[in-house]
Amino acid sequence: MAENNRAVLKLREKFAASIIDVVEFRGEVTVTVKKDAITDILTFLKQSLQYNLLTDLTAVDYLGKKEERFLVVYLLCSIPNKDRLRIKTPVSEEDCTIPTASVVWGTANWLEREVFDLFGIHFAGHPDLRRILMTDDWVGHPLRKDYPLQGPDREPYKGRLS
Amino acid sequence: MANTETMTLNMGPQHPSTHGVLRLVLELDGEVIVKVTPHIGYLHRGVEKLSEHRTYHQILPLTDRLDYLAPMSNNLGYILAVEKLMAVEVPERAETIRIIMAELTRLQSHLVWIACHALDIGAMTVFIYAFRERETIMEIYEQISGARMTSNFFRVGGLSQDVPDGFVKKVSDFIDVMPGYLDQYEGLLTTNPIWLKRTIGNGVISAEDAIDIGITGPALRGSGVDWDLRRDTPYAGYEKYTFQVPVGEKCDTFDRYKVRLVEMRESCKIVRQALDKLKPGPVLADCPQVCYPPKENVYNSIEGLIHHFKIASEGFYAPEGEVYQGVEAPKGELGFYIVSDGGNMPERLRIRPPSFINLQAIEQMSVGSMIADLVAVIGTLDIVLGEIDR
Fold first, then answer.
1. Which residues in chain A touch residue B347, judged by CB atoms under 8 angstroms apart?
2. How far apart are CA B53 and CA B355, in angstroms?
3. Hey, of B22, B25, B49, B362, which one would you mutate to test binding to chain A, going by the most A CBs within 10 A of its CB?
4. What are B308-345's pLDDT values in tens digits?
5. Which among B79, B90, B75, B82 has a CA at the least distance from the CA of B151?
6. Low-confidence residues of chain A, pLDDT below 50?
7. Counting CB atoms within 10 angstroms of each CB, which of A101, B148, B155, B254 has the fewest?
C-alpha cells in the first residue's frame, strides 16, 4: 500500500539513499528520511508533487528509547491532490540542529519557533528564532521528557502510579 | 523639517479588541503600521505536556478548554484521532448527533465572531442580537451535557449519554428561525456604509500567500481557495451530507465576512439533514476494551462497576503507531497528532491549533494600513487565545 503512494514512488526514485523507512499505519503514510537531505526533499515535495500546505511541524522526544533522541515531524497536505504525507527526520541530542523549513513554507516560521521553545531544537537559517510560548528568560524546554511535569524546583509528580 | 522617526506602541495584553490576552508591539509611522510583533503565551497551560501524563479518556476534558468558543469541535477532533488509533466503529445515532452538535458549535463560534467583530468596528446592535441567538445554543449544550461551555460530551466510541427528550424539537425550532436572524444581521451590516468602508479592501491576503503562511478555514476560503476538510477529506460521516462551500474573491475582510455568513446558513442545512436522519439506537460502540460501560450496568452489577473502574483508572492500551486527524473547526483545520508507544497514555499529543497559524498572517495583512484597521484584521482572523497558547 505505502509503496504505491505517489510521493513514496517519486522519493524512492530521486532520494533513494536518504530514505530510512516507509511505514503505513491506519492509511497514513510516514516516510523517515535523513537529516542532511531534508531541505531538498521538502522543496521537491512542494514544487514537484504539489504539497503546497504545511499543515504542521512538530517534534517528538524519544529520550532513552531511540538512538537519536528527537524526531522532527512535518505534516504535509496537498490541496490540488487532496492527500497527506508525513515526513520524519531524526535529530540527535549532541547535534541538535536542523535546517529550517521556513524557506520552503512561510508557515514553518512560528512552528519552528515553538519547537525551539519547547524542545530546544535549533533551526539553522531561521529568520527569527526566539521563544514564542514561554517567556524570553525561561530556562529549559518543557516538552522534553526529562523536564519535570510540575516544573523545575518542585517535588516530582507522584499522583499517578500507573 | 519633517520628523521621520517611528514610534513604538504597545497594544494589549489587556485590550478590548484583542479577544483575550494577545499583546502586539506596533511600530508606527504616524498612524500607519510599519511592523507588528505579536507576543503570545500568556495563557500557556502546557496541555500537550499534561496529555503525556493522562490516559486517553482523561485528556478529553482538556480539549474543551482549547478553543472555548467551540468546545465540541475540539472534542470531536480528539475523539476521532483516538478512534482512528484504536480502530473503533461508532454507531450511526452517535455519529449523527455528533454532526448536529459540531454544526451548532460552528454556528455558536461564528455568532461570537460576528458579535465581537462588529462591536470592534462600532456596530453594537449586532453584538446584542448574536448573543441572544448564542444563548439558545448554550441552552442546548446545557440540556445534553450539563455544561454551557466545557461540554465534555463525546466519548471514545460514541457519546457519554443519549440526548434528552425535547432535544430534537429545540434544535429544529432553532434551525427554523436562525436564517431569519442571519437576514437581520445582514440587514444591519451588508449595506451599512461604515461597515463597508471598514471592511472592503482591509486585510488583503492573496490565495498563494494564504496557503504559504498556512491559513485554513473561512479565512482561506475568503481568499478564494476552495478547500474544506468536511467535503475534501470527509470525516465523522460528513460524506453523507450535501452542502455548499462558499468562496470569496477579493481576499479582504468583507469577503471573509460573507463566507462566514454563508457557512452559517449551510450549517443550518446540515443540521436539518442530520435531524431527518436521526434514528433511535445505541449511542456507544460495543467495544468494552475501550469504551465506558452503560451507566445502568455500573450501578447494578459488580462486573459493570469493575469495568468502569478499570476504564476510569487504567484506561486502555493503544497499539504502537501514530495517527493524525484534522477536522474543519470553525476557525480552520484543527488537528490532533497522537504518537503511541503501546501504553495507556500517549507518548506525544500534538495539537495543531488553527488560530495560532492563522495569527501568523497578521503582519502580512496589516502592515501599511492604519492602526484602526488592525482591529478589523484581528476580528476577521477570528482568533481564540486559549487555543493559540494551549
1. 60, 62
2. 25
3. B49
4. 999 888 888 999 989 999 999 999 999 999 999 888 89
5. B75
6. none
7. B148
